[in-house]
Design brief:
alpha/beta; five-stranded parallel sheet; binds flavin-adenine dinucleotide; 11 helices; globular
Amino acid sequence: MRIIIIGGIAAGMSAAAKLRRLDKEAEVVVYEKSPHVSFGACGLPYYVGGFFDNEAQMLARTPQQLIASGIELYIEHEVLQVIPETKTLQIKDLKTGTIKEDHYDTLMIATGASSIMPPIENLELKNVHTLRSMSDGKTLREALRKPEVKRVGIIGAGFIGLEAVEAAKALGKEVAVFQLEDRILKEVFDKEVTQLLEAELKAHDVALYLNSKVTALRGEGYATHIVTENEEIPVDLVLLATGVRPNTAFLDNTDIERLRNGAIVVDQEGKTSLPGVYAAGDCATVPHLLKGEPAYIPLATSANKLGRIVGENLAGNHEVFEGTLGSSCIKLMNMEAGRTGLSEAEAESMGLDYKTVFITDKNQTDYYPGQEDLSIKLIYDANTKILLGGQVVGRKDAVQRTNVLAVAIYARLTTKQLGMLDLCYAPPFARTWDAINIAGN
Ligand code: FAD
């Protein structure tokens, strides 16, 4: 058996490592376009901001370690085409420019996603950056350290744009954020949460331009201004963070089933519509526990989990990934927020008969140092009271409480059960009735 995996980061390497452990005989081959494997892009904002300095800490394994484990690894090799009829790949060696063919018995596509380049004029100017790869991170880190770079303009207020705010502020920069929509993180959190996060940005003197469509960058060689429909804001550096698009254009010659954004549709085993072809990670959909249809939620958590499941199945098993809850979180200056399950906007768009509650309580007792406000939103079925979603925001312990809600939603608990759930209590950590209990009650 010759099993080929395209892409050697979270999904691809999770699959390769699992497969190698389970099947000692198969030829396990990985083609990776970049010079790196097992790279944790999640560390990039903190590397850029100087929270740590050794970029090797973002690499879980080296190519040499993988080769030593018995994986046939080709870095700096780009797969140009998949021909399913003959189970053939066309591959370009990016160092020599030579093109070769390879044949697979089974294939996994784990090619991830790339930064979207929106229709904004002059994106080719030299001080315009994206943040996705190791080389993006190194270039941005270096650029942000130049003393002449004082004003940073960030286009896009999703996870990556906002994590970059913290990086730029840590380096003492003035920051302006431009968001097309009327609030930040609109696809992730409901308004009760985003308005608290927006207040946190403003408290740190971040200029927030909402409902703001950037049309162009202005400057000779370097961008000096971000131009919106209403104004021109001076900047010394621009970061584009307007979302990602699955890297699946090289499959255009096939009839593999994809969503409109190009994400490959997979089932719970990670199988695509092409026989013998699996996919996982940011290039693919992920089964959703509550939505009843594949979702596109490009996160490392699902890439690793579905990647490992695909590794099992490449070894001949039939493991299933039960599904994501879309659990995700962010630290924004001194606040943190997490979400899991359905947001209210999602419950509404699914036509569910739901109710919500939003409370503000405390993370712990007042007599132990460190008491902070904690706000919790629950979305639950109006009839059965079974939990559908939860969001928690505060300065301390919000994200780990979101994890409690993820378990509760997975276990189909009702609000009443959440209200009586036996959660830990000692003065430094909670109050006798934890904020989660209070939200449930
Ligand atoms: P990728 O990591 O994109 O890897 C795909 C690989 O395939 C790439 O190395 C690429 O070079 C290679 N490739 C592409 N096309 C080809 C081809 N034709 N031939 C050969 N190789 C190819 N997720 C979280 O859950 N939490 C976080 O806090 C978080 N923070 C993030 C912060 C940043 C700045 C970024 C950029 C992402 C963050 N993510 C986070 C998302 C997370 O990094 C991704 O979900 C994860 O990397 C997806 O893994 P993947 O293997 O699917 O794809």
